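User: Show me an example of a complex going from sequences to structure tokens.

Assistant: Sure. Here are the input components:
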Amino acid sequence: MEWITLTIDGRTVTVPKGTTVLEACRMNEIPIPTLCHDPELSSYGSCRLCIVEIEGMRNLPPSCVTQATQGMVVRTQTTKVRDSRKTILELLVANHPLDCMTCQKMGDCDLAKYAYEYRVTGELFKGGERRHLPLDDSNPFILRDANKCILCGKCVRACEEVQGRSVLDFSFRGFHAQVGPAFNLPYSESECVFCGSCVSVCPVGALTEKKMVGQGRPWEVEKVQTTCPFCGTGCNFDLNVKDGKVIGVTSNPEAPVNGKALCVKGRFGMDLIHNSERLTTPLIKKDGEFVEATWDEAMDLVAQKLGEVKQEHGADAISVLSSARCTNEENFLMQKLARAVIGTNNIDHCART
Amino acid sequence: MTFGSGAMTNSINEIPDSKVLFIIGSNPTEAHPIIGTKMKQAVARGAKVVAVDPRRTEMADVADVWLRLRPGTDIALINGIMNIILANGWEDKKFIAERTEGFDQLRAQVAKFPPEVVSKITGVPVDQLIEAARIYATAESAQIFYTLGITEHIYGTDNVMILADLSMLTGNVGKENSGVNPLRGQNNVQGACDMGALPDVLPGYQKVTSPTARAKFEAAWDVPIKSESGLMLPDMIEAAFDHEVRAMYIMGEDPVLTDADANHVREALETLDFLVVQNIFLSETAKLADVVLPAGSFAEKDGTFTNTERRVQRVNKAIEPIGQARADWQIICDLATRMGYPFAYASPADVMQEIASLTPQYAGITFERLGRKGLQWPVPDAEHPGTKFLHEGKFARGKGLFMAIEYQVPDEPPDEEYPLLLSTGRRLSHYNISTRYSEALDSYAPEELAELNPEDAERLGIKDGERVKVASRRGALETKVRITDRVLPGMLWMSFHYKESPANVLTNAASDKVTKTYEYKVCGVKVSKVI
């Protein structure tokens, strides 16, 4: 691999050839604000928030689409850079609803984070025109508030580049520009399959998980990485837990198989954990009806009955079905139970579906 | 069998860089959506796709060649493709000479399948067969993907072996982006097999019939282990029916909804003296139980799942079990202890230690090492980084063995009385039967929409969205239909997600001679309008 050396804010850093200035900064923990950049997507260079000063270059080039070169001298926090970033943010905020207090994205909003950092007041372009677009809540999974959209285009690229679906795109021009499905149809009438990749990359409150609205603020939520219990792909995601309850699922960019991508089942199907029909107590059938029992009663009965069958008819009169839905450890224990405790090789699971 | 190891040979993240994808009996964009997206990424980067499916799937739509074969004619089709490859000299002579055996038998068998004959059997035009053979055989690298469209036949094992033949004939196995990849249906079906939840093998596919294997486990567990294989699931059902099996303990499965010929399964389970079901919901099977044990969901326990690319990954406990529910592993330990053989494991990590000590593929695995990224088996020791693709340089069994495979017909093809061919599968918005318990998913896809071709619909006088009665020799149900050319004329397609229209009361319990996999993909049915 070919390496190049450059200077960023007076620090000498070495990065592989082909690295962008933005990547070089992030590899070295030099903060650069971005709204339209995502490492899983192509670089777009549209939000201009990642601009920097580079010696010998005119204007302020966006670092996400500028290749680092040998001997380059980069400055990321000059007054000129910071003022330009602030102007961009003021322009965005001038036409952004400021209902942050009730917005689902509060605490996790990139626009709010940078607006705060750059002391944006909303006064600079006050009094301009504002959008008043209808909310799209046509489906059970995704809420779309086009008024909050900052046109970064990440959802458009995620839909096209990661999912290969191209349901979303820009329409109209200038102030009227919008992102949405063809003909501005609601999601429910489009070709959308509700994978939620668009939600996972949205930097603001334009796209949110419908079932998580009102359920918890980011700072109240514990995220637990785990493996999806549905198909054999083995996607990882974060269960969002508040007060001992799973309130939803968010992508974990570190997931080894799937990155931030998930399907409708993995992202939106976890409400089944708290379904009211979950079994919560052992049941013993008496005269054809189930009666609630304690664990001791139920387990003693099972141990006794299995023991009796083994005694009277032999161990092979017992069969055990393990499960392709349970963990490795549980499957191991189940076959050990069959073979070492009961004494039969009658152990199987629906391995074939 | 052919290679000596049953798992996906390559890795999921090799897919976007593939040159050729040969997708047969698999609908990844619905059944394995994230694998489907990686395939579409490969297409966007210029990969060629051969799709083999009677149903117009999304991958069939984007394929360079879509071979729309008659259901169940896969063996004839692949023999025909191999015939074309040999006729054109597209085989990999070096690979065949160095790494395989049995080539002469294969050549003789394949000679019986000239393209014209194959075209007649499969309904696929000759020029499409040639184009598919050319794309697959002349590629610099090519991967085969198959799912249950291949295995859920009475000759499913033969279907799989002939795909292995195809890969070896062209040298498309044992390297990056080249291999044979079963996309495993369930989250941990790979792991359940690895762990020996099968009647003929101990953990790590060590045969119960092998004295050395038994000796190893007998020493570790201090009990004798039976030397004869046990019963496979379909045989358990028959044995229950015949009173040879008197008691069953069923964890996390619902055979009454998911096994073929469901009415027969229900009857067999009702015949048992004693049935214990351990589940998170009161499933249709649990309703028949004498004792029901409430289990914790995946969010309520620690452990590991092994995915279709052999990656062992952590499952991390996020919440306490609901109500009095307990993690499955704790329930099993409790039962073993009460039956007089204490299972004294403090945690699933503890169990993994024992797994690693007895299972060569998992020998180097600990929870700590798995971390956030998991490890792909084989992991033979504590320093080993895991294995991205299998069979590099050498197959698990040494040389790859070509198998000459005869063409066979399904157990119950359509006939005069049951003129439509029923095939079953999964939809995008549901996963087996449990996702019905997700309010969000269920409100989005609340009911079955059986797929029927417009030709048949017109003949039967059925309109889109109407309700029909579907009957087979074993049972009957009612469902709504969607009229679509996604299915061939003469075919009906249903999912098995809905207990209101349980497709498996219709399906045929005839099964593969080796794996006992039911023939879910073909049976005869008749359809009539509900008035």
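The lines above are the inputs; the final block is the predicted structure for all two components together. Chain B touches chain A through 148 residues (CB under 8 Å).
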